[in-house]
Amino acid sequence: MRIKNLFLATGLLVSAGALAQSVPTHPNYINYGTDNNQRFTTEFVKMLETWEPGKPYLSPDDPEYSNYTDDNFFISRVRVKDRITNTATQANPNLVPGEEAVNEKKLCWFSPIGEMTKQWGAMSRYTFDADNFSMWQYLDVHSNVSSQLFRSPGVFNDVAHKNGVITGAYYFIDWASTVSPTSPAGEPLYELSKKENGKFKYAKKLIQLMKYYGIDGMAFNPEGYFSSDLNTQFQEFLAECHRIAEEEEDWHFHVDWYGYVTNSGGLNDGSSTLTANHSNWFHNDALNYPVTDVYFLNYNWSEGSLQTSVNVAKSKKRSPFDVYAGFDQQGRGYGGWGNGGWGVLSKYPVSIVVWGAHDRSQIYTGSNEFGTSELTIQNTYQDKLEMLFTGGTQNVLSAQKIPLNESNEKVTTSHNDLKKWHGYSRFINAKSTLQELPFITRFNLGNGMSFKKEGKVTFNQKWYNISMQDYLPTWRWWVDAGNREVPADAINCDFDFNEAWYGGSSLKFHGATQKSEVNLYKTKFTVESENDKFGLTFMLKNGTDPKLKFKVSLVGSENTYKYYTIPAESVKAGEWNTISFTAADLGLKANDVIATMGLAFENTDANYQINIGELSLIPASYNKT
Predict the structure, then answer these.
(1) Is the confidence at residue 459, as pLDDT, over 60?
(2) Contact criterion met (CB below 8 Å) for 59 and 46
(3) CA separation for the pair 569, 591 (Å, rounded)
(4) Using CA atoms, how far apart are residues 395 and 397, in angstroms rounded to an integer?
(5) How much is the pLDDT for 623?
(6) Nearest one of 458, 380, 475, 361 to 423, comparing CA atoms
(7) What local confidence, expressed as pLDDT, does residue 144 receive?
(8) Using omega within 30 degrees of 0 as the cis cutoff, is the peptide bond preceding 20 cis?
């Protein structure tokens, strides 16, 4: 096994084009071990004959074994974490799980992550400008269009899983292709789903392999004509994979499916509708298991198509939220252009899926609006992500008041369009997995212009490693005056790539405010004892008075806060300062359950700036050795 370290090489140059600068000039140091770097072929199916959990794709005596020596880079070592439910810590407490139109929708991000060549995807590399997607709290599924079946970078799956998001890998069938046992598009699917002695030969092996590598599902763009002998076979195969995953392998197999194939294999989107003539690709009645979990309606959906889709889903005894209304962020944007509009969608229990595009995320591509320097693109990208997911005000409370985008209103990735956008937070709560201690975050986005440790540069090169992305704030942002009312002079909240305590970024709060309280994290942390220790590392740009309090609320009294004032004594301006305080200092006792954590600012002026480099909560009994 060749040992490789992201920070091993020095002097590696980065290409300079506005979009191309995210593509490194250095060679791809990881061998995918598949044809054409990632492409799924019948060779993969042959490999399943001999593969066993814990072994690489091929056996050491295979002449192609050298192509698979980088196997560890494709293993995710983080299982999907459970998410917290607490309606009292939601921006909209009335948005709850259920089966009615007023209930919370799900969101599938059917998009790439990476750069425009699709050769790197989310793989770590020596660049700063890179797709460090960070709004996991609003996703349920990331289809990972950058990675073909069944080779997905472990770093990508790790960061998704720790935020409670399930992932996929992609199979693309070009428009009007023949999908048959002997066609290029169909042969791998036929071989994978063939039977032996009346049973699917590879179904169990496939689920074991996906579990071993940490790939949660499969995403399909099936724009071809399925032959009769493959059509039913593959439907049944996907249902059997669901059954095996649940009953035999303790896995959560799922399928994301662009709804363009009829029950008999024809190429027809049913007028952007899940019809009875498409329902065999949604659910298998004989096994009573799903065939697909994200049924992706094409982009021309209307009120009538949503109603029919809901009825068909319910007739299969499935949640209608397993039907997803499609949005094409490349061609049509995020609004109501060409569809029934968000007012119509709000009336139906149908979820949301966003496609775009084939080789790059459109919102990432659109982040050179204000300049082409790497730093400008990265800052703009985070701003636009916040506007898209939270809403144009970048405050989850005030975004709830933005009018819904209606039919034939186009919302692009432009800053002006996004400023008027209501955000996905109108229909989806920000979610969190934070319920295990110890807890430490350094607000690292997963890339940097250099790498710092305790504020000192230890690697003076650009880098991207998304698995190093920390637990980021649950809300981007939730700023009020302590009463769910947004102050007119709310403090400004950003990430800062110029200052970092550990990694490549920190949080930055700046500007004048009379009173701003920032809810940062939704949690379910149980206090072990009054000696549990909180830690906060910060840098104050001007003066020595932080004008800052740390705050928590508890389960059962979520709107009542306990505060600890950060003292001004011994604070040095322009340097990193670390302060510790105990649970007792906050008035906490054993078995209290922390529901939220945040910061409060009072009476700051226009020159005020504070960077937060680390926040931690360590149980008194914790022994880091």
Answers:
(1) yes
(2) no
(3) 32
(4) 5
(5) 84
(6) 475
(7) 94
(8) no
For strand 170-179 and strand 217-226, is the pairing parallel, antiparallel, or unpaired? parallel
Secondary structure of residue 193 in the 3-state scheme: coil
Give the pLDDT of residue 64: 66
- Cβ–Cβ < 8 Å for 392, 419: yes
**% of residues, the chain, pLDDT over 70:** 93
Minimum mean pLDDT among 37-41, 359-363, 505-509: which range? 37-41
Give the CA distances from residue 93 to residues 86, 394, 527, in Å, rounded to whole numbers and listed in that order: 9, 19, 25
Contacting residues for 610 by C-beta, under 8 A, at least 6 apart: 508, 509, 510, 538, 539, 540, 541, 546, 548
User: In the Cβ-directed half-sphere of 417, how many Cα atoms lie within 13 Å?
Assistant: 20
| Of the candidates 394, 459, 455, the residue with the CA atom closest to the CA atom of residue 423 | 394
Work out the average pLDDT over 309-320: 98
Tell which phi-psi region holds residue 146, choosing left (phi > 0), alpha (psi between -120 and 50) or beta. alpha
Note the pLDDT tens digit of each residue in 157-168. 999 999 999 999
To the question of pTM greater than 0.85 for the whole model, the response is: yes
Does residue 116 contact residue 359 with C-beta atoms inside 8 Å?
Answer: yes
Closest by CA to 7, choosing from 132, 125, 154, is 125
Two tokens at 577?
């300062």
In 3D space, the residue among 531, 580, 528, 520 whose CA is nearest the CA of residue 553 turns out to be: 520
CA distances from 433 to 351, 379, 430, 520 (A): 21, 26, 11, 13
CA 243, 244, 246, 247 dihedral sign is positive
Give yes or no for residue 3 having a pLDDT over 50: no
Checking if the pLDDT of 4 tops 90, the result is: no
Residues in the chain: 625
CA gap 381, 401 in Å, rounded: 24
Q: Tens digits of per-residue pLDDT, 568-585?
A: 999 999 999 999 999 999
Residue 366 and residue 374: Cα distance in Å, rounded?
13
pLDDT in tens, 534-551: 999 999 999 999 999 999
- DSSP symbols for 247-290: HTS----EEEEES-B-TTS-B--TTTS--TTTGGGTEETTTTEE
Average pLDDT over residues 373-383: 97
What value does the mean pLDDT of the chain take? 92
Question: Which ranges constitute the DSSP H helices of 163-279?
Answer: 187-192, 203-213, 228-247
For 101, residues 6+ apart whose C-beta sits below 8 A from its C-beta are 346, 347, 348, 349
Query: Would you list the DSSP string of 84-149?
Result: ---GGGSSSTT--SSSSTTSPP-EEEES--S-TTSSSTT--BS-SSS-----GGG-SEE--TTSBT
Task: Look at residues 128, 223, 111, 210 and name the one whose alpha carbon lies nearest to residue 170.
Answer: 111
Q: Which residue has the tokens 């996905």?
A: 424
Structure tokens at 53: 């959990």
Q: Which two tokens stand for residue 147?
A: 């990675």
pLDDT over threshold 50, residue 532: yes
